[in-house]
Design goal:
With 284 residues, the chain is of the alpha/beta class. The chain contains twelve helices and nine strands. The strands form two sheets. The chain has a seven-stranded mixed beta sheet with strand order 4-3-2-5-6-9-7, with helices on both faces. A two-stranded antiparallel ribbon has the order 1-8. The longest helix has 16 residues, at 216-231. Bound molecules: S-adenosylmethionine. S-adenosylmethionine (SAM) binds at residues 25-30, 54-57, 60-61, 75-78, 101-103, 125, 127, 130.
Length: 284
């Protein structure tokens, strides 16, 4: 197996394949030899569990995933990586690369096609420019992943694991908390990547609840409310929800008051339970 955490190997591969790193695609590849085995260890609950990877880069994490899981499907957008991966992943018949934008993949059909009846976990060093959209895409898909173990920027990790009702929370925090429990596993300093990004990172894991607080369909309408509430977080919840959802201010004020909130409450102050209660009296 090629050692893809060795800087000499990375530079030689890049040179020979005329590969230049794209900032726009978030191409910061992992070079710390301990990180990828740890992501695979935390992220893959049993060898029969299929793994969906998002963004292969040169395949440093893909290799580790393929050592632990019988079946890995990796979605990568940048086709310039094809000749590199042909070389770096050649000894792994259990890896399938799919050249696609993950945001355009219809997950239920895709997973059925790639994994059949297998349970599936997600492991990735996410491209940072689309961290929240990718996580929303996974959580809104209706698929129950065994776990979602991803590297994100430290600030995103703090937001994802924040408590709803605290300043650090955002719409994606709510999406996570409606489906599972998120925890920060370990920090990864910026010099663990090549090229090195300007900020530090952390690996987080989301484990699904056995009994989520609402159905998938209910979650989608709760998320409409949440997205509207957080889109204008400096406004009062009344103003943010009325303009974001296109409903009269008086109807929002009545719903807020029914739930025991003052007219000056801001959406970011509401806890998960309060958001669910509000969604129950303000159907969208
Ligand atoms: N897994 C590798 C590693 O850890 O070194 C690469 C991680 S790098 C942070 C993110 C990868 O995601 C890049 O290979 C990039 O080309 C790919 N990528 C960017 N946008 C994508 C998208 N919309 N869909 C799929 N892959 C994408």
């Amino acid at each position: 197996m090629l050692n893809l955490t060795d800087m000499q190997v990375i530079r030689e591969l890049a040179k020979r394949h005329h590969f230049t790193f794209s900032k726009g695609l978030g191409q910061n590849f992992l070079t710390d030899p301990e990180v990828c085995p740890a992501i695979a260890e935390y992220g893959i609950p049993f060898p029969e569990c299929g793994v969906l990877e998002i963004g292969t880069g040169f395949g440093v994490l893909t290799q580790e995933l393929a050592l632990k899981s019988e079946c890995v499907a990796a979605v990568e957008l940048d086709r310039r990586l094809a000749p590199v991966l042909k070389e770096t992943l050649r000894e792994f018949p259990n890896i399938k690369i799919v050249w696609q934008d993950i945001m355009k993949v219809s997950l239920p059909e895709f997973l059925k096609e790639q994994f059949g009846e297998r349970k599936v976990a997600v492991c990735a060093n996410l491209p940072y420019y689309i961290t929240s959209p990718v996580l929303m895409h996974l959580l809104e898909s209706g698929v129950r992943f065994e776990s979602i173990t991803v590297m994100v920027q430290q600030e995103a990790a703090d937001r994802l694991c924040a408590r709803l009702g605290s300043r650090a929370a955002g719409a994606v925090t709510a999406a996570v908390q409606l489906r599972g429990h998120a925890e920060q596993l370990f920090a990864v300093p910026r010099d663990s990547f090549y090229p090195s990004p300007k900020v530090d990172s952390a690996v987080i894991r989301i484990l699904p609840y056995d009994a989520p607080p609402c159905s998938q369909e209910e979650m989608l309408s709760v998320l409409k409310l949440v997205k509207a509430g957080f889109a204008q977080r400096r406004k009062t919840a009344e103003n943010a929800l009325a303009s974001g959802l296109g409903i009269p201010k008086e109807a929002v004020a009545t719903a807020l008051s029914e739930c025991g909130h003052s007219r000056s409450v801001r959406f970011e102050q509401l806890t998960l339970e309060q958001v669910l209660e509000l969604a129950g009296v303000l159907p969208v």
